[in-house]
From TrEMBL:
InterPro entries: FUC_metazoa-typ (IPR016286), GH (IPR017853), Glyco_hydro_29 (IPR000933), Glyco_hydro_29_N (IPR057739), Glyco_hydro_b (IPR013780). This is alpha-L-fucosidase. One of its GO terms (molecular function) is alpha-L-fucosidase activity. Its EC number is 3.2.1.51. Residues 1-12 form the signal peptide.
C-alpha cells in the first residue's frame, strides 16, 4: 500500500514539474509593444450613451452587458484600415523588439480563426480576416518576435470560466471544464498555427491552483518548449516576472522581468472616456527608470476600431523611438545600474562600460561617479565627443559643457 501511495505522489509531483523555457533573448530585447485590440475598441468606454471611466477593455463587466448584447459588437467590427506590415514596421522603427497582442481578452472574443468558439473574428464579424495570422506573417517577414496575450481564467463569454456573474448568477462553475473545452484547445491552436510564439502573456483573475498553473505552463511548453509564459499564470510557475500594471520596478535584478505601461494613463483598450496620454518625456522617464533596473518595458497602445493607432500615439512613440535608435547601444542587452538612484538621471551597464542617461543637466556642469579610482574615459555616446574627466579620490569627475546636447536625455558612455 505504501508503495502505491509513493507512486501516486511521484506521479502527482511529476504532474507538477514545470519545464522552464530559456529566457536568454528576453532581457536582450528590452522593449516590447503591447496591443490591446478587440471588440471593446468600438464602445471605447461608452455604453448606451453612458460614459464609463477607467479601463475601456472592461466595458462588458463595468456595464454588466449580457453576452447576447455584447456579441452584437462583432457584427460591427470591420477594421478595414488594418495593415499588419504597417503595424510591425512602425513598432520596428520605434525600437520595439517584440510585440504582444491580445488574442483573447476577458470578453472571450478570439482575434483569430478559432475552431473551438464561433465567437471569433473570422466567423462572427463582417471583416472575416484573421488579424493574428496577418500579424504573425508580417512579424516573420520583418524579424519581429510575436507574443500572445491570453486571458486564461477570466472569460465573460463562458459560464464555467471566471467573471461573468450577471449572465450566470448562482451558476456552479466547473473551471476545469472551461480549461479543457476552451482554454487549452485555443492555446493549442495559437501554438500550432502561427509559427514561433515568443511568449504567452497570461493575465490575472481567478487565483489559479498550483496544479492549474502547472497544467497550462506544461501545455504551452508541450507545443513550443521555448515559448515563455508570464508570471500572471500564478504560483510562481511562469518563466519570467511581470510587474503590476503601470508600476515601476523598485529593485535592480538580472532576472527576466517586465514592467508594463499604457500610453493612455488609465486604459489599455482604445478609450474615448479616458483621453489623458503620457507625454514623450513621461514615457522616457518610465523607459529609463525601467531599464536602469534591468527590466524590460512593455508599452501599450489600444488600436482604434478602424484598425489604426491614434495619431498621438504614433507621434509620441516616434519621438521616443528616434532617441531609442540613436542610443541603442545603451539599451539592448544592457543590465541595470550598479549604483543607487542618481539625481541627474539613470544608469545602464555592460561589461567595462556604464551608460549615464542624463535627464537633468547639472547646473554646475559637474558630474561625479563613485568609480573607486578606476582609470576610465568618458564620451558622448551619440557624437563620440570626448568629455574631460579626472579622478578625485573615489570619484570620477566629469566636466560637462553648459548646453545639454540632447534635451530629452543625453547619454555619456564611461569606459573603464
Ligand atoms: C494588462 C492589464 O491586465 C489586467 O489588469 C490587471 C491585472 C493584474 C493587476 N495586478 O496584479 O495588479 C492589475 C491589473 C487586465 O484586467 C487589464 O484589462 C489589462 O489587460
Amino acid at each position: 500500500l505504501l508503495g502505491i501511495v509513493l507512486c501516486l505522489q511521484l506521479y502527482a509531483q511529476e504532474q507538477n514539474v514545470v519545464q522552464k523555457a530559456d529566457t536568454k533573448w528576453f532581457p536582450e530585447a528590452k522593449l516590447g509593444l503591447f496591443l490591446h485590440y478587440g471588440l471593446y475598441a468600438i464602445p471605447a468606454g461608452v455604453w448606451k450613451g453612458k460614459e464609463y471611466k477607467g479601463v475601456g477593455e472592461w466595458i462588458q463587466e463595468r456595464a454588466k452587458i449580457p453576452i447576447s448584447e455584447y456579441e452584437q459588437l462583432a457584427t460591427q467590427f470591420n477594421p478595414q484600415q488594418f495593415d499588419a506590415n504597417e503595424w510591425v514596421l512602425f513598432a520596428k522603427d520605434c525600437g520595439f523588439k517584440y510585440i504582444v497582442i491580445t488574442t483573447k481578452h476577458h470578453d472571450g472574443f478570439a482575434m483569430y480563426k478559432s475552431d473551438v468558439s464561433k465567437f471569433n473574428i473570422v466567423d462572427a464579424t463582417p471583416f472575416k480576416r484573421d488579424i493574428i495570422r496577418e500579424l504573425a506573417d508580417a512579424c516573420k517577414k520583418h524579424g519581429m518576435k510575436l507574443g500572445f496575450y491570453y486571458s486564461q481564467s477570466r472569460d465573460w463569454h463562458e459560464a464555467d470560466a471566471e467573471g461573468n456573474l450577471w449572465d450566470f448568477k448562482g451558476y456552479q462553475k466547473n473551471f476545469q471544464k472551461y480549461l479543457d473545452e476552451k482554454c487549452k484547445p485555443q492555446l493549442q491552436e495559437l501554438l500550432t498555427r502561427y509559427g514561433d510564439v515568443a511568449l504567452i502573456w497570461f493575465d490575472g483573475g481567478r487565483k489559479m491552483s498550483d496544479n492549474e498553473s502547472t497544467q497550462l505552463v506544461n501545455w504551452v511548453h508541450k507545443f513550443q518548449p521555448n515559448c515563455l509564459t508570464s508570471s500572471r499564470i500564478g504560483n510562481g510557475r511562469g518563466d519570467y516576472e511581470t510587474l503590476s500594471d503601470n508600476k515601476l520596478p523598485t529593485t535592480t535584478t538580472d532576472q527576466a522581468y517586465e514592467a508594463l505601461f499604457t500610453h493612455n494613463f488609465r486604459s489599455w483598450g482604445y478609450s474615448k472616456t479616458e483621453t489623458k496620454l503620457r507625454t514623450p518625456q513621461e514615457l522616457m522617464e518610465v523607459l529609463l527608470n525601467t531599464i536602469s533596473k534591468g527590466a524590460n518595458l512593455l508599452l501599450n497602445i489600444g488600436p482604434k476600431p478602424e484598425g489604426v493607432f491614434q495619431e498621438e500615439s504614433i507621434r509620441d512613440f516616434r519621438i521616443i523611438g528616434k532617441w531609442i535608435n540613436a542610443n541603442a547601444e545603451a539599451i539592448y542587452g544592457s543590465k541595470g545600474s550598479p549604483f543607487p538612484e542618481m539625481p541627474w538621471g539613470y544608469i545602464t551597464s555592460k561589461p567595462g562600460a556604464l551608460y549615464l542617461h542624463v535627464t537633468k543637466w547639472p547646473e554646475d556642469q559637474k558630474l561625479s561617479l563613485p568609480l573607486n579610482g578606476r582609470s576610465s574615459s568618458a564620451k558622448f555616446l551619440v557624437s563620440g565627443k570626448k568629455i574631460k574627466s579626472k579622478i578625485a579620490g573615489e570619484n570620477l569627475l566629469l566636466s560637462l559643457p553648459a548646453k545639454q546636447p540632447d534635451e530629452m536625455c543625453t547619454v555619456i558612455k564611461v569606459s573603464y
